[in-house]
Amino acid sequence: MDIAGFLASVESSNLATAIRDSLYLFPLIESLHVLGLTLVFGTIVIVDLRLLGIASIQRPFTRITSDILKWTWAAFVWTATTGMLMFITNANVYYHNFFFPNEDGAARACGVERGDI
Fold first, then answer.
1. For the segment 27-66, what is each residue's pLDDT rounded down to a tens digit?
2. Cut 0.70: pTM above it
3. What is the rounded CA–CA span in Å between residue 14 and residue 31?
4. CA angle, 45 as apex, 42 and 48 as ends, to 5°?
5. Element counts in the chain: helices (H) and strands (E)
6. What whole-number distance in Å separates Cα of residue 12 and Cα of residue 90?
7. N or C: which terminus of the chain has fewer CB atoms within 10 Å of its end residue's CB?
8. Domain count, the chain
9. How many CB atoms lie within 10 A of CB 50?
């Protein structure tokens, strides 16, 4: 199966159709996606501020990262999942959009850097 056939089959799936045809489902998923992104970046900022010595300097760095990074990765998985749910609703258009390969590559790089993907 070529990429066009795969994208067409993804777009015509029952899940994609349900999301696309619902008045509230796509906006709900999009809102959850933004909340996930906020959590990812917010937890990264907490670690960065600790590294800079601006916040939580009384706590050891290893303790902060062990507490925060599980939330970061959970939010990353949440954001990737909601992103895929939004993608399948109009896969052919999103796939051929100039920005999609850049966004997808950046998301993969985050996981590869950590060694999880």
1. 999 999 999 999 999 999 998 898 898 888 888 888 888 8
2. yes
3. 22
4. 160
5. 6, 0
6. 9
7. N
8. 1
9. 19
